[in-house]
Structures are given as C-alpha cells and as structure tokens.
Amino acid sequence: MKAELISIGSELTTGRNLDTNAQWLSRRLAEIGIPVGFHTTVADDLTDNLDVFRTALRRAQLVLTTGGIGPTLDDLTREVAATVAGVDLFEDAASLEHIQQMFARRNRVMPERNRVQAQFPVGSEPVRNEKGTAPGIWMKIGESFLGCMPGVPSEMFHMFETQIKPRILAQFPTSGVILERKINTFGMGESAVEEKVSDLTARGHVPEVGITASDAVIGLRIFANGPTRDAALAQAAPIEATIRERLGELVFGIDDDTLQLAVIRLLNRHRKSLSVAEGVTGGMVAHLLATVPGASSWFRGGLIAYDDTLKVQLLGVPSDLIAMHGTVSPEVVTRMAEGCRARVGTDLAIATVGVAGPDGGSEQKPVGMVYAALASADAPTVVQQFSWTGTRHEVQSRTSKLALNLVRLHLQRKP
Amino acid sequence: MKAELISIGSELTTGRNLDTNAQWLSRRLAEIGIPVGFHTTVADDLTDNLDVFRTALRRAQLVLTTGGIGPTLDDLTREVAATVAGVDLFEDAASLEHIQQMFARRNRVMPERNRVQAQFPVGSEPVRNEKGTAPGIWMKIGESFLGCMPGVPSEMFHMFETQIKPRILAQFPTSGVILERKINTFGMGESAVEEKVSDLTARGHVPEVGITASDAVIGLRIFANGPTRDAALAQAAPIEATIRERLGELVFGIDDDTLQLAVIRLLNRHRKSLSVAEGVTGGMVAHLLATVPGASSWFRGGLIAYDDTLKVQLLGVPSDLIAMHGTVSPEVVTRMAEGCRARVGTDLAIATVGVAGPDGGSEQKPVGMVYAALASADAPTVVQQFSWTGTRHEVQSRTSKLALNLVRLHLQRKP
Fold this sequence. Notes:
Two copies of one chain form a homodimer. Chain A is built from 15 helices and 17 strands. By secondary structure, the first copy, chain A, is an alpha/beta fold. Chain A has three domains: 3-171, Molybdenum Cofactor Biosythetic Enzyme, Chain A; 177-254, Alpha-Beta Plaits (2-Layer Sandwich), CATH 3.30.70.2860; 259-412, CinA-like (Maf protein, Alpha-Beta Complex). In chain A, a hairpin with a 5-residue loop joins strand 16 (369-376) and strand 17 (382-387). Chains A, B: Belongs to the CinA family.
C-alpha cells in the first residue's frame, strides 16, 4: 500500500508558486498510516497530465490530486480522469445546484463557464466542496482509488478532512499509524554520527531509521508504525533509547526542538541569566533566543560589537590584545565573553568572532574560521574553534549554534 | 524540449521537510528558456527511484535531480543512475582526492563511508562540488541528459550555476527567455497597493503582472518574454516605469533586494554609520543587517536591551520614564534610539519596542503593538507606531522591517 500525490498547475512547474499541498497531505496520510511514495507536479498540459495520472495509478493504490478542477480552459482534471478510466463525462444535477447556490450566496449569477464544474467521469462520486465552487471527484480506476481536490489550500484542507479522509479510511481500514520521531543532535558531522548508529540506519531495519543534516543539526528519524499511536510509540521507544545511549550529550532535543529552545529551557530550570556579545554572528544568537516565547525571563540581551572599535568601547577588550592576536582569536573572544558578563551582569555570557565571508579571509584565518566562548562564574571561560564551509549566512547560523551549544553543554552537565 | 526535476528523500515524501529546490530550479531553467513539465519527489526507496528515473528519462530530454548523493546507505542516486543506464560504477580518483581535501580543510580525516561519494556510473562525468563533499553527476542516457546535484540548497545552487547550467546551455542552445522582474515595496498593505495598479494586474494584460505579499513586503512581478533577455527586458521596462511612478517611495528595490540590502547600500552611498538598540526585535534588526556582505563598513553594531534593566543600564533610558509611560511607548523608544546613537557614536541609530506575544499583551498595549524610532544628527527623532497581527516571529520580523524602513526613507529623501 502506497500513495501518490499529484499537484496540478503551470504556476507550480514554472516555479512561480511553491507547492505546499503535497507536504500537508503527506503529514495527514502518515497520521492514518498511509505511506506516501511519490509527489508529482505537472503543468496544465493534457498529454503530460494523462502520462502522470497513468503512471500514478500503475504504482500507487491511492492517488490524490490537487488543482485543475476550476472552470477555466486549462483545468483538465475532469477530462483526464475520464480518459484514463475510459469513460465519458456526465452532468451531476446536485453539484450544479450547489455551485449555483455558492454564487447566489455571494449575490452573483453563475457564469456559464462554471457549468463545466458539475461534470464528472461516469462511475465517479461527486465530492461536495463547502468552501468553493469546484467539487471534488472520488472514483476507483483499476485497482486504485483516485481522489481529486481543489488546489486552493483552504478548500483542499476542508475537503480532505470532511470528505476524502473518511472515504480513504473506509477503503483502507487496516491502516495503522506511522509515527515519526526525530532525535536532534549537534556537535558532530553527519558521517561520524552515522558511524555510531550504522546498524540502525541499515536498509531493512525495523523500525526504519534515517539520518538528515540541516544546517549543522544532525537528526535521526525513527519511522515507527503500529495499529495505534501507542503501539507505534512503543516500537520507537527502545530505538530512541539506544540512539540516546550511543550519542550521549550530542542529543539536545526531539522533533521540532531547536538549540535555542533547549537553551531557554535550561536557563529556566537552572535559574541562570544569559547575555551575548556578538562579533561574526552580528545579532543572530540574540535573535534566535528572542524567537522563543518567554525568552525574556533569563535572556537579558547583549552587545553587538560588529565593529572592532565597539569591542573595545562596549566590551572593554584591550585594543593591544586585538592588535597582537587579531580579532579572530581565542584571546579576543574570551575577553568579549568575560567583558559582556561583567558589564551586563549575567550569570553566563557567550561571545562569537570569525570570518563570515565572502571576503575578508586570509591564509591563516580563512573564510569560515570562527571562535565561540562561554564565560561563567563557576568555571574558566571555555573557547571552541571551528572552520565551516558554506555561505556567509551558513557561517553565521552555524556559529550561532556553536555558541548556543556551549551554554547547553554547560548547563546540561550540571547536576 | 521539456525538463523534469526529481527531488529525492523520504524527509520530503513524509512531509517532514518542504521541497524548495524544484521551485528554484524551475525559475533558473525558465531564465534560459527551458520549460519544466514535471516535478517528481520520491522516497529513499530503490524500486521507486528506478521507476521515477525511468519515467523521467522517457518523457523529458533534461532530467535534473537533487538529493540522494550523500555518503549514507539511503543515498541511492549513484546506484540508480548506473542501473537505469545499464552500466557499472567506477571510482574517480580526482573526486576522491577532492573529498579528502574538503575534510582536511576542516581538520578532519575522511570517514571510510565517504569514499562511496567518489563512485560514478561508467560513461558519466563527475561534477565538482565546491561547497560540500558530494560531487554531482552529468551523463547522457538514451536521448536524454541527466544531471544529479546535492539536496543541500546552498551546495545545489552553486553547482547548478557554475557546473550544470553551462552543460545545459551547451546541449540546448536557448530558444527564448522568460523573464521575471519583481518590484519590491514596503509601507502599504497588499489591497491598497493593488488598487494603485489594478489595470496592470488585470487578467490578459501583456506582459502579465502579479502581486505577492511576503511578510509585509508587497512585490509586483512582471512576467515578460522574448527571443532574448534584452527583448524580454524591453517588454518589462515600460511597465516597471509605470509601477515605480505610481508607487513612488514605497519602492525599495527589485528582484531579491531586501530592505537590509537597500539600507546597507544607502549607508555606503551617504557614508553614514548606523547602530541599533533592540527591544522587541531582540537582535533581529542587527542580524538582518549583518547578513549583507560588507555590512561592517557602516553598520557598527548595537545594544540588545531585551530586558528593561538593560534599557536603563546600557542605553541610559531614565527608569522613571519607563515607570511613567511603560516600555512600549514613544517616549522610551525615542530615548533608546538617542541613547544608542550617543553611546555607540554613530550618525544614525534605530530602536524598537513592542509586545511580541504570544503573552504579555494588555488592553491598551495588545500583542502586536510596536514602536520604531530613528535618531540622527540632522533631524528630530522620528517615531513610528504600528499594530501587527501575526505570530511572535512575524511581529519581530515586521517590526525589524519597520525600523529598517525608517533608515531607508531618511537616506533616500536626501539629495
């Protein structure tokens, strides 16, 4: 059992609009235990639509489409569904009346061209659209089921939940639940993390475990399934425990947890205040922390010393220290963190320096070379160096995470 | 001539991640006159990948893939490309050396697992990846061309522009250009902007003009076409002139221009330095400015006074002023901007205060209510109030833009 989602419209294949319907539907189908094997997007072209529908019906037992059921000439889905099923179209009186009523509710007369929206392939079931004029289509073609919905997200969401999902559940009643659990790690590269769990990520492992990298955060995804959500959770639990045991303090959270959320939680738990002194990250560390609701309880603020004179003026870094070691040095980042902690008056302070690029690199200090430091009352200042490859934005974003991770490790290691 | 884009990865078919690579590639291909007929997304499954590759090579003359070329066991693209071409894999010594060098630059030894990334289908051309360890693949299979790129957007963007696009142009000499020109505005809502240009956005207008809203930036997109880029530009030019005339100083840039880029350009042109004092935006204004390469010439840094005590301590706002008017007031934001300008010593300074939410709102100062201020040497401090609806992130992001827009208007109005 596998599903395919088809998104129809030239505004998608030209790249003018971004398709988000397929993502939304994938998540909803996972919740009822139906795995999605394919998303296909196709332009408003008859031949291409026929090809895509035939391909989907050959390889998937459930095919859901969005778009192409409007009243205009480039709306081809009705015709395509009838052609691949080898049947004619018929006009459904109830649907026509519903479309006329939709116009009447907006005090308008139905344009004649909307009449085409009441046409359906013979043998199909018209599907009521409560949010717009375009009805959907539900039909069996060969051994597969086809559900056609509008492309407008709000109309599609409603039609799926109220009309299509019940029909899917009626046809595929044994479907259980697919549950995805993601373990988020920071501090080690993708390959190195995978080496620690390669027996789990091997093809054919049950439950399936995948690994993904997103801007230096390495995630381990467990895809568990079972007849109920609890059963799926029970399948995932021992694998999660194994992963946590092997990866230890690399793990900072699950699912949508971010490093900044982990840091804010730890600050609250340990009742420690934090300030930031940002060089290369230019405000991004503070920005990430400030995105977390309730951040203000323990995150106080900080100093953006993007310019070297401000490192001296606002943070008290001696100018001869900068002259001797250069800004991008463990000495300077240490003094920035300590100066910030003293001047703002927080329990903890983090600082960043580095070369964000694209210009400004040298042989000794190439683009991507950065330092982060953490100053605290109860331990000597910690400095971490790293050399990133990537764009300016990536260097700033990953260095922000490097700095946040210093706070996380410091607090997480406390009893 | 038609192209198909294949996005590979179970994180896409499960709906965990949203694919944006296909949209980006569709736009780039349109620019060189290549229409995209299909986007296909497929899970990390060998049988399904073989099906998708064979289907694409049957119906498209150019097939570009993203993802599936990492070092892990679920990276199947190398194997799939070889299988559909009916050839074996070989190890490319130059690619292996390049991968080893990428690790050496990060002071790491290449894990044995990454060796697989130097394998290529016999008859294919290894494609250098300057931004990561996964090389791409270029090969002819039957009558079609296949280009395989990484899924990481920054790596893919660079590989497409420098390596894949030249190979496409060599095989498919361009027959015409579709050009999209976007005029970006800030300071007025979507409906109000549309009223000013409704004759241009009417259906059937040549060239087509669309309107999009993205986080308070309203964009007017002109879709022009012609045999050459110059011809398409010539079609767009008079419409762009009309739009600029009607919208006046609402316009801050074109295409991918951002408000922060407009501000950095204006600071450079007028040789004015800028600092920021951030309350509600918590570092986001500084972060946006710091994302612009070369920002450090005139953007000096600033103070994040997320906590009220820091507004007093770091910015010199009198505590009785906060007690009298509340933090979210024109009085306090004015003193923050002026205090920042004096303490950091810049020509201009901006400040923000407000209620980001989701909690902390009151009847008089509801969630979304914000102030931005601009202090300068040559004019009284300007304060702007706004009430946003939206999430915490949206309130912070839009308020950052409100503050940046004050700098833009101040400098743009100068002779």
